[in-house]
Specification:
With about 325 residues, the protein is of the alpha+beta class. The protein has two domains: about 5-45, no CATH class; about 50-330, no CATH class. It contains six helices and 18 strands. The chain has helices spanning about 5-15, 25-40, 60-65, 85-105, 255-275, 285-290; strands at about 55-60, 75-80, 110-120, 120-130, 135-140, 140-150, 155-160, 165-170, 170-185, 185-200, 205-210, 215-220, 225, 235, 250, 280, 300-320, 320-330. Strands 3, 4, 9, 10, 11, 12, 13, 16, 17 and 18 form a ten-stranded antiparallel beta sheet that branches. It has a three-stranded mixed beta sheet with strand order 1-14-15, with no helix packed on it. Strand 9 and strand 10 form a beta hairpin.
Length: about 325
Amino acid sequence: MSSNSYQIILLTFLLHASVGHAQNDDKLNFERIFWQELNEEEENKPLRKEQFSVGISELPQWFWNLPVATDKLSYAIGISDPEMEDSVKAQKQAVQRALLQLSLMSGASISGVSDLYNKDLQNKYEEYYKIAGSSFVQGGIVVLDSSKTQLGEKIVLIKLDRNRKNRFHIETGVEVYKSNTKIEIGWCSSEKISYYARTDSDSMSCICEQDNEQYNLLSVWNRDTISIPAYRYEYKGIHTDNTTDVSDSIIKLYHKGLWSGYFQAFLNGLQTTIANHQSRLKSMTELHNHSSGNENLNSINRNVVNSNIAFNIRTIGALYGQLNIEFCISSK
């Protein structure tokens, strides 16, 4: 085969792969052709496991039915990355991610700005948040339950009991950036979530970037980079109560995995809670005072957040094929 033929095959493959999830099956089939044409050694090999759906994972019932939190008792769910070969490391990572949430829930310092721009036919929404949790969390930690998905994701249910005199030290930080811009053929969206959590014994960090339907994940545990398999992550919802029936819901977290989808829902719920309770809408007069008369600011609605709150998880459910987490403000 000539060099020009190789270039044509490669170009066709790249154009085909950019269509999106709606044509994902066609993409997978065409990738088989790609490898067959470009590398004879790959010709008789099956497609890599991560290209396929491995079925719909059942989540434990307690995932959807957390115990009722109080000012003295908080609950969080931690989830490891998929297919971690070391089960002890997976357990520690899941617990650490639960502690990250408990640090935020025990007293989060949140600063953020969001802009909604509307002028003529131009529409754009941007937001940027920075969140830091409590460095010292009062209370004892208990692992109440644990489970494992068929994708190898370890799930733990953690209780923080503030009646106990223990306390643990943890440093946490979260940054969130989102952008949605109207273009001629629809909307262009991007999102970047980065966070870290460090205790005296372990550290973790993660960066999750989404550009329309493309995802890029970088997970680090104690300086070891963890590869996230590109499965089609799907989970079955479970009936929760008389008003929220998700028994027939299929939660589709393509390429993200359960933890990334869960923590994204956690942050979305937190931002909604803050917007309803603590944020304020800046007036155009305030904006002009900082703008030197920029006329474009007449088309901007700016929301500003700068607050410290404690909160608890109220419900975990499913909404439009994604996880949905709601919070209640705590007096802690």
